[in-house]
Amino acid sequence: VVTLGEAMLRLSVPTGIRLPEMNTLQVSVGGAESNVAVALARMGCSAAWISALPDNELGRHALGHLNRHGVDTRFVVTVPDTRMGLYFVEHGSLPRPTRVIYDREDSAVTHLRSCDIPWGEVESAKVVHITGITPALSEGLRQLAFEFTERARSAGVAVCVDINYRERLWGTEEARSVLQGLCQQATLVILSEEDARDVFGLAGS
Questions:
Q1: 147-180 burial by CB neighbour count: b if 16+ within 10 A, else e?
Q2: Is residue 118 part of a domain?
């Protein structure tokens, strides 16, 4: 399985502490496609992750996390003078919901280009996986997402698209226009009932 997407640093405050009151943060690595690669690798599957990371200690921390879980990271490029995407998590306690603040603008993955992609690996995979988050991050990644799915499908590779709609990244109309195109390339589409309703206007069982 070959995945394409961003990994970020997740910075969480201890349960019961609000973000404005924080003085400690728990650091972990998270990202929709990288999490899939980790889960598959831990189950004994061959999983590769294509992405870009900053050429600094934060990027190396994320890369080490993927490596420790057995993910093939040979196709991760490092980009000088870029940054790691971050997100801050405040755990909810009823009736207060969990709060997430993203800081990912112009992160390293938005500098990923077609020439960085190992197309031979993509076209020889059994399955490729991408989510709706990746094409929402930049116009360049949007074009790359389409090339990724189109080239895989043309090579007879199964294409998995997880809609994973994030309203903080784009509106429903823009998302629908882009994601419908990705779904046309897909062998398997994963989406929640909420995404089916909010993005595609689908309802019922």
A1: ebbebbbeeebebbbbbbbbeeebeeeebbebbe
A2: yes
